Protein backbone atom coordinates (compact mmCIF):
# COMPACT_ATOMS: atom_id res chain seq x y z
CA UNK A 1 0.00 0.00 0.00
CA UNK A 2 1.69 3.15 -1.18
CA UNK A 3 0.67 5.82 1.29
CA UNK A 4 1.23 9.39 0.33
CA UNK A 5 0.78 12.49 2.45
CA UNK A 6 -2.24 13.21 0.32
CA UNK A 7 -3.93 9.89 0.94
CA UNK A 8 -3.26 10.23 4.68
CA UNK A 9 -4.79 13.69 4.60
CA UNK A 10 -7.89 12.29 2.99
CA UNK A 11 -8.19 9.59 5.59
CA UNK A 12 -7.75 12.13 8.37
CA UNK A 13 -10.42 14.32 6.88
CA UNK A 14 -12.79 11.38 6.62
CA UNK A 15 -12.17 10.42 10.22
CA UNK A 16 -12.62 14.02 11.34
CA UNK A 17 -16.05 14.21 9.77
CA UNK A 18 -17.04 10.85 11.09
CA UNK A 19 -15.94 11.66 14.64
CA UNK A 20 -17.57 15.06 14.62
CA UNK A 21 -20.86 13.58 13.49
CA UNK A 22 -20.69 10.75 16.02
CA UNK A 23 -19.99 13.15 18.87
CA UNK A 24 -22.72 15.54 17.88
CA UNK A 25 -25.19 12.67 17.84
CA UNK A 26 -24.08 11.18 21.17
CA UNK A 27 -26.65 11.88 23.88
CA UNK A 28 -25.35 9.92 26.85
CA UNK A 29 -22.17 8.88 28.57
CA UNK A 30 -22.01 5.25 27.32
CA UNK A 31 -22.28 6.45 23.71
CA UNK A 32 -19.52 8.98 24.31
CA UNK A 33 -17.36 6.24 25.72
CA UNK A 34 -17.99 4.10 22.65
CA UNK A 35 -17.00 6.96 20.35
CA UNK A 36 -13.87 7.54 22.34
CA UNK A 37 -12.96 3.86 22.10
CA UNK A 38 -13.64 3.74 18.42
CA UNK A 39 -11.30 6.59 17.56
CA UNK A 40 -8.85 6.90 20.41
CA UNK A 41 -9.06 3.56 22.22
CA UNK A 42 -5.56 2.40 22.97
CA UNK A 43 -5.99 -1.07 21.54
CA UNK A 44 -8.50 -0.78 18.73
CA UNK A 45 -8.94 2.96 18.16
CA UNK A 46 -8.60 3.93 14.50
CA UNK A 47 -6.50 7.02 15.13
CA UNK A 48 -4.30 5.18 17.62
CA UNK A 49 -3.84 2.39 15.06
CA UNK A 50 -2.75 4.83 12.39
CA UNK A 51 -0.33 6.53 14.76
CA UNK A 52 1.16 3.16 15.60
CA UNK A 53 1.65 2.27 11.93
CA UNK A 54 3.53 5.51 11.19
CA UNK A 55 6.78 3.66 11.61
CA UNK A 56 6.08 1.59 8.54
CA UNK A 57 5.69 4.64 6.29
CA UNK A 58 8.47 5.95 4.17
CA UNK A 59 10.33 8.69 6.03
CA UNK A 60 9.34 11.49 3.63
CA UNK A 61 5.67 10.82 4.41
CA UNK A 62 6.03 10.02 8.11
CA UNK A 63 6.57 13.51 9.49
CA UNK A 64 3.63 15.21 7.81
CA UNK A 65 1.37 12.26 8.35
CA UNK A 66 2.33 12.25 12.06
CA UNK A 67 1.51 15.92 12.38
CA UNK A 68 -1.89 15.49 10.69
CA UNK A 69 -2.78 12.55 12.90
CA UNK A 70 -1.76 14.33 16.10
CA UNK A 71 -3.80 17.37 15.21
CA UNK A 72 -6.77 15.08 14.58
CA UNK A 73 -6.24 13.30 17.87
CA UNK A 74 -6.22 16.56 19.83
CA UNK A 75 -9.25 17.79 17.96
CA UNK A 76 -11.22 14.68 18.81
CA UNK A 77 -10.14 14.95 22.44
CA UNK A 78 -11.34 18.55 22.57
CA UNK A 79 -14.69 17.69 20.99
CA UNK A 80 -15.09 14.78 23.40
CA UNK A 81 -14.61 17.15 26.31
CA UNK A 82 -17.25 19.52 24.97
CA UNK A 83 -19.67 16.69 24.30
CA UNK A 84 -19.14 15.37 27.83
CA UNK A 85 -19.96 18.75 29.37
CA UNK A 86 -23.06 19.01 27.22
CA UNK A 87 -24.27 15.51 28.12
CA UNK A 88 -23.75 16.15 31.83
CA UNK A 89 -25.60 19.45 31.73
CA UNK A 90 -28.47 17.78 29.87
CA UNK A 91 -28.65 14.94 32.38
CA UNK A 92 -28.69 17.42 35.28
CA UNK A 93 -31.42 19.51 33.67
CA UNK A 94 -33.45 16.37 33.02
CA UNK A 95 -33.12 15.30 36.63
CA UNK A 96 -34.20 18.70 37.91
CA UNK A 97 -37.17 18.72 35.58
CA UNK A 98 -38.24 15.28 36.76
CA UNK A 99 -37.94 16.10 40.43
CA UNK A 100 -40.99 17.35 42.23
CA UNK A 101 -40.67 19.59 45.19
CA UNK A 102 -43.43 18.92 47.70
CA UNK A 103 -43.43 21.70 50.21
CA UNK A 104 -46.12 20.00 52.28
CA UNK A 105 -43.89 17.02 53.19
CA UNK A 106 -42.78 16.97 56.83
CA UNK A 107 -39.18 18.05 57.27
CA UNK A 108 -36.39 15.65 58.13
CA UNK A 109 -35.56 15.96 61.78
CA UNK A 110 -31.90 16.42 62.50
CA UNK A 111 -30.77 13.89 65.10
CA UNK A 112 -30.99 15.49 68.49
CA UNK A 113 -28.19 15.18 70.96
CA UNK A 114 -28.70 14.70 74.65
CA UNK A 115 -26.75 14.97 77.82
CA UNK A 116 -24.47 12.10 78.71
CA UNK A 117 -25.92 9.93 81.53
CA UNK A 118 -22.97 10.84 83.73
CA UNK A 119 -23.56 14.53 83.08
CA UNK A 120 -27.20 14.09 84.05
CA UNK A 121 -26.23 12.69 87.45
CA UNK A 122 -23.55 15.31 87.92
CA UNK A 123 -25.99 18.13 87.27
CA UNK A 124 -28.54 16.55 89.55
CA UNK A 125 -25.96 16.39 92.33
CA UNK A 126 -25.07 20.02 91.72
CA UNK A 127 -28.71 21.04 91.92
CA UNK A 128 -29.21 19.20 95.19
CA UNK A 129 -26.19 20.83 96.78
CA UNK A 130 -26.96 24.27 95.43
CA UNK A 131 -30.37 23.95 97.06
CA UNK A 132 -28.58 23.08 100.30
CA UNK A 133 -26.55 26.29 100.09
CA UNK A 134 -23.30 24.96 98.63
CA UNK A 135 -21.15 26.76 96.10
CA UNK A 136 -19.87 24.85 93.04
CA UNK A 137 -16.11 25.19 92.70
CA UNK A 138 -14.08 23.59 89.93
CA UNK A 139 -10.50 22.87 90.80
CA UNK A 140 -7.85 21.77 88.33
CA UNK A 141 -7.42 18.51 86.49
CA UNK A 142 -3.67 18.95 86.24
CA UNK A 143 -2.36 19.27 89.74
CA UNK A 144 0.85 19.10 91.70
CA UNK A 145 1.91 16.70 94.37
CA UNK A 146 1.31 19.23 97.10
CA UNK A 147 -2.39 19.76 96.39
CA UNK A 148 -3.14 16.15 95.48
CA UNK A 149 -1.27 14.41 98.29
CA UNK A 150 0.97 16.35 100.58
CA UNK A 151 -1.44 18.93 101.97
CA UNK A 152 -3.94 16.10 102.35
CA UNK A 153 -1.66 14.51 104.91
CA UNK A 154 -0.04 12.11 102.49
CA UNK A 155 3.68 12.88 102.60
CA UNK A 156 5.89 11.39 99.88
CA UNK A 157 6.33 7.99 101.48
CA UNK A 158 2.82 7.63 102.82
CA UNK A 159 1.45 4.17 102.00
CA UNK A 160 -2.00 5.56 101.13
CA UNK A 161 -0.46 6.93 97.93
CA UNK A 162 -0.06 3.40 96.69
CA UNK A 163 -3.82 3.04 96.46
CA UNK A 164 -3.88 5.66 93.73
CA UNK A 165 -2.03 4.76 90.56
CA UNK A 166 -1.07 8.21 89.46
CA UNK A 167 -0.35 9.61 85.99
CA UNK A 168 2.66 11.87 86.30
CA UNK A 169 3.53 14.53 83.73
CA UNK A 170 6.95 16.01 83.23
CA UNK A 171 7.03 19.62 82.10
CA UNK A 172 8.94 22.85 82.15
CA UNK A 173 7.45 23.85 85.49
CA UNK A 174 8.47 20.61 87.13
CA UNK A 175 6.47 17.55 87.83
CA UNK A 176 2.72 17.73 87.49
CA UNK A 177 0.14 14.99 87.75
CA UNK A 178 -3.41 14.30 86.74
CA UNK A 179 -5.42 14.54 89.93
CA UNK A 180 -6.32 11.13 91.31
CA UNK A 181 -9.24 12.52 93.26
CA UNK A 182 -11.16 15.75 93.56
CA UNK A 183 -9.94 16.08 97.16
CA UNK A 184 -7.15 18.29 95.78
CA UNK A 185 -9.81 20.93 95.13
CA UNK A 186 -10.38 21.24 98.88
CA UNK A 187 -6.83 22.49 99.24
CA UNK A 188 -7.04 24.73 96.17
CA UNK A 189 -10.21 26.33 97.41
CA UNK A 190 -8.89 27.00 100.91
CA UNK A 191 -5.61 28.40 99.62
CA UNK A 192 -6.91 30.37 96.66
CA UNK A 193 -9.93 31.90 98.25
CA UNK A 194 -9.53 34.33 101.04
CA UNK A 195 -12.86 33.54 102.56
CA UNK A 196 -13.05 33.53 106.28
CA UNK A 197 -13.77 29.95 107.00
CA UNK A 198 -17.35 29.33 106.51
CA UNK A 199 -16.89 27.03 103.62
CA UNK A 200 -19.62 25.06 101.91
CA UNK A 201 -18.51 23.84 98.53
CA UNK A 202 -18.77 20.95 96.15
CA UNK A 203 -16.14 20.30 93.49
CA UNK A 204 -17.32 18.12 90.61
CA UNK A 205 -14.91 16.94 87.96
CA UNK A 206 -12.75 14.40 86.25
CA UNK A 207 -10.11 12.35 88.02
CA UNK A 208 -7.51 9.97 86.57
CA UNK A 209 -5.95 6.71 87.69
CA UNK A 210 -4.13 3.94 85.94
CA UNK A 211 -6.99 1.48 86.42
CA UNK A 212 -8.97 -0.15 83.66
CA UNK A 213 -11.52 -2.91 84.21
CA UNK A 214 -15.28 -3.29 84.34
CA UNK A 215 -15.62 -1.19 87.48
CA UNK A 216 -12.65 1.15 86.95
CA UNK A 217 -11.99 3.58 84.14
CA UNK A 218 -8.71 5.51 83.81
CA UNK A 219 -10.83 8.66 83.80
CA UNK A 220 -13.92 8.96 85.92
CA UNK A 221 -15.75 11.69 87.75
CA UNK A 222 -16.27 12.59 91.35
CA UNK A 223 -18.00 15.20 93.40
CA UNK A 224 -16.04 16.38 96.38
CA UNK A 225 -17.67 18.19 99.27
CA UNK A 226 -16.13 20.39 101.94
CA UNK A 227 -17.82 22.14 104.82
CA UNK A 228 -15.78 24.15 107.32
CA UNK A 229 -16.89 26.40 110.13
CA UNK A 230 -16.95 26.85 113.86
CA UNK A 231 -18.54 23.91 115.61
CA UNK A 232 -19.18 21.58 112.65
CA UNK A 233 -19.66 18.05 113.97
CA UNK A 234 -19.96 14.48 112.84
CA UNK A 235 -23.69 14.95 113.35
CA UNK A 236 -23.64 17.63 110.62
CA UNK A 237 -21.79 15.24 108.36
CA UNK A 238 -24.30 12.45 108.90
CA UNK A 239 -27.34 14.69 108.53
CA UNK A 240 -26.03 16.41 105.38
CA UNK A 241 -24.98 13.20 103.67
CA UNK A 242 -28.19 11.43 104.50
CA UNK A 243 -30.18 14.40 103.22
CA UNK A 244 -28.39 14.49 99.92
CA UNK A 245 -28.51 10.72 99.39
CA UNK A 246 -32.22 10.79 100.05
CA UNK A 247 -32.67 13.67 97.63
CA UNK A 248 -30.70 11.75 95.02
CA UNK A 249 -32.15 8.25 95.37
CA UNK A 250 -35.37 8.68 97.35
CA UNK A 251 -35.96 8.67 101.07
CA UNK A 252 -37.11 5.04 101.10
CA UNK A 253 -33.48 3.86 101.04
CA UNK A 254 -31.72 3.63 104.40
CA UNK A 255 -28.24 5.14 104.85
CA UNK A 256 -25.66 3.74 107.24
CA UNK A 257 -22.18 4.85 108.23
CA UNK A 258 -19.18 2.59 108.82
CA UNK A 259 -15.78 3.52 110.23
CA UNK A 260 -13.08 3.76 107.57
CA UNK A 261 -9.73 5.38 106.94
CA UNK A 262 -8.56 8.29 104.84
CA UNK A 263 -5.40 10.24 105.70
CA UNK A 264 -7.21 13.57 105.32
CA UNK A 265 -10.10 12.81 107.65
CA UNK A 266 -10.27 11.78 111.26
CA UNK A 267 -12.49 10.03 112.04
CA UNK A 268 -13.28 8.68 108.57
CA UNK A 269 -16.53 7.06 107.63
CA UNK A 270 -17.98 5.40 104.59
CA UNK A 271 -21.65 5.67 103.78
CA UNK A 272 -23.68 2.74 102.49
CA UNK A 273 -27.08 2.92 100.88
CA UNK A 274 -29.72 0.21 101.08
CA UNK A 275 -29.40 -1.64 97.76
CA UNK A 276 -31.69 -0.02 95.23
CA UNK A 277 -31.70 -3.11 93.03
CA UNK A 278 -33.11 -5.62 95.54
CA UNK A 279 -34.48 -3.24 98.17
CA UNK A 280 -32.14 -4.66 100.78
CA UNK A 281 -32.99 -8.34 100.43
CA UNK A 282 -29.61 -9.27 98.99
CA UNK A 283 -28.63 -9.65 95.33
CA UNK A 284 -25.67 -9.78 92.97
CA UNK A 285 -25.17 -6.01 92.99
CA UNK A 286 -24.92 -5.78 96.80
CA UNK A 287 -23.22 -9.17 96.99
CA UNK A 288 -25.99 -10.48 99.19
CA UNK A 289 -25.49 -7.86 101.91
CA UNK A 290 -28.41 -5.56 101.13
CA UNK A 291 -26.03 -2.53 101.18
CA UNK A 292 -23.84 -0.81 98.63
CA UNK A 293 -20.90 1.40 99.41
CA UNK A 294 -21.64 4.85 98.06
CA UNK A 295 -19.12 7.40 99.34
CA UNK A 296 -16.14 8.17 101.54
CA UNK A 297 -16.17 10.96 104.08
CA UNK A 298 -14.98 12.12 107.46
CA UNK A 299 -14.13 15.02 109.70
CA UNK A 300 -11.32 17.09 108.17
CA UNK A 301 -8.05 16.03 109.77
CA UNK A 302 -6.54 18.96 111.72
CA UNK A 303 -3.30 18.17 109.87
CA UNK A 304 -4.97 19.37 106.67
CA UNK A 305 -5.92 22.70 108.27
CA UNK A 306 -2.39 23.04 109.58
CA UNK A 307 -0.90 22.45 106.15
CA UNK A 308 -3.18 25.12 104.69
CA UNK A 309 -2.45 27.54 107.52
CA UNK A 310 1.27 27.20 107.14
CA UNK A 311 0.99 28.05 103.43
CA UNK A 312 -1.29 30.99 104.16
CA UNK A 313 1.15 32.24 106.78
CA UNK A 314 -1.58 32.75 109.34
CA UNK A 315 -4.24 30.85 111.15
CA UNK A 316 -7.24 31.34 108.88
CA UNK A 317 -8.16 27.69 109.34
CA UNK A 318 -7.19 27.41 112.98
CA UNK A 319 -8.04 23.83 114.00
CA UNK A 320 -8.73 25.10 117.50
CA UNK A 321 -11.49 27.31 116.17
CA UNK A 322 -12.91 25.51 113.16
CA UNK A 323 -13.81 22.00 112.25
CA UNK A 324 -15.23 20.56 109.09
CA UNK A 325 -16.27 17.55 107.14
CA UNK A 326 -15.47 16.35 103.66
CA UNK A 327 -16.78 13.69 101.35
CA UNK A 328 -16.21 12.28 97.91
CA UNK A 329 -18.63 10.40 95.70
CA UNK A 330 -18.07 8.71 92.33
CA UNK A 331 -20.58 9.91 89.76
CA UNK A 332 -20.45 6.90 87.42
CA UNK A 333 -21.16 4.66 90.37
CA UNK A 334 -24.40 6.50 91.04
CA UNK A 335 -25.39 6.35 87.36
CA UNK A 336 -24.55 2.62 87.27
CA UNK A 337 -26.69 1.89 90.30
CA UNK A 338 -29.53 3.92 89.02
CA UNK A 339 -29.64 2.29 85.60
CA UNK A 340 -28.45 -1.20 86.54
CA UNK A 341 -25.27 -0.88 84.42
CA UNK A 342 -22.49 -3.30 85.32
CA UNK A 343 -19.62 -2.09 83.13
CA UNK A 344 -18.26 1.43 83.68
CA UNK A 345 -16.51 1.39 80.31
CA UNK A 346 -19.86 1.65 78.54
CA UNK A 347 -20.00 5.30 79.58
CA UNK A 348 -16.86 6.13 77.65
CA UNK A 349 -17.21 3.91 74.58
CA UNK A 350 -19.14 6.60 72.64
CA UNK A 351 -21.53 3.94 71.36
CA UNK A 352 -24.73 5.73 70.43
CA UNK A 353 -26.76 2.54 70.83
CA UNK A 354 -25.90 2.74 74.52
CA UNK A 355 -26.09 6.50 74.97
CA UNK A 356 -29.41 6.89 73.18
CA UNK A 357 -31.13 4.80 75.84
CA UNK A 358 -30.96 7.62 78.35
CA UNK A 359 -33.14 10.62 78.61
CA UNK A 360 -30.94 13.61 78.85
N1 LIG B 1 -10.70 10.93 97.80
C1 LIG B 1 -11.41 9.70 98.08
C2 LIG B 1 -11.31 8.79 96.86
O1 LIG B 1 -10.98 9.24 95.82
C3 LIG B 1 -12.84 9.97 98.41
C4 LIG B 1 -12.98 10.74 99.69
C5 LIG B 1 -12.98 10.09 100.89
C6 LIG B 1 -13.10 12.11 99.69
C7 LIG B 1 -13.10 10.77 102.08
C8 LIG B 1 -13.21 12.80 100.87
C9 LIG B 1 -13.22 12.12 102.07
O2 LIG B 1 -13.32 14.12 100.92
O3 LIG B 1 -13.35 12.81 103.23
O4 LIG B 1 -11.58 7.62 96.97
Q: Report how far the terminal alpha carbons are from each other.
A: 86 Å
Oligomer: single chain
The proportion of residues in beta strands is 15-25%
Please summarize the sheet with the most strands. 7 strands, mixed
Architecture (CATH level 2) name of the largest domain = 2-Layer Sandwich
> What is the H/E order?
HHHHHEEHEEHEEHEEEHEHH
- The name of the CATH superfamily of the largest domain reads Bira Bifunctional Protein, Domain 2
Cα-atom Rg, whole angstroms? Answer: 40 Å
What fold name stands as the CATH topology of the largest domain?
BirA Bifunctional Protein, domain 2
Q: Based on CA inertia axes, which overall geometry fits?
A: elongated
What ligands are attached or bound here?
3,4-dihydroxyphenylalanine
The total tally of domains equals 2
User: Total number of β-strand segments?
Assistant: 10
The assigned structural class equals alpha+beta
Number of continuous helical runs: 11
Q: How is this structure best described in words?
A:
The protein is an alpha+beta fold. The protein folds into 2 domains: 2-98; 117-355, Bira Bifunctional Protein, Domain 2 (BirA Bifunctional Protein, domain 2). 41% of the residues lie in helices and 19% in strands. It contains 11 helices and 10 strands. The longest helix is centred in the N-terminal third of the chain and has 40 residues, at 59-98. It is elongated and about 120 Å long. The model has no long low-confidence stretch (mean pLDDT 92). The structure holds 3,4-dihydroxyphenylalanine (DAH). 3,4-dihydroxyphenylalanine binds next to strand 9 and strand 10. The site of 3,4-dihydroxyphenylalanine has 11 residues, from strand 9 and strand 10.
Amino acid sequence: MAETVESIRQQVQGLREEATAALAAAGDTPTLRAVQDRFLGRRSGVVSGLLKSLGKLPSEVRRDAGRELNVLKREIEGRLEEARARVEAQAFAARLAGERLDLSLPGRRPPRGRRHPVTVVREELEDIFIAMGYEVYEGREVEDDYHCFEALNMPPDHPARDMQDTFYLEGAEGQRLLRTHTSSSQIRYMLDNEHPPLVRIICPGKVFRRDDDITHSPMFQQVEGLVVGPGITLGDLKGSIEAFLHALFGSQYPVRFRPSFFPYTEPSVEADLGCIVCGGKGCRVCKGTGWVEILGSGMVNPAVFEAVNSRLGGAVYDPEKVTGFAFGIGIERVAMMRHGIDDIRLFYGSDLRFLEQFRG
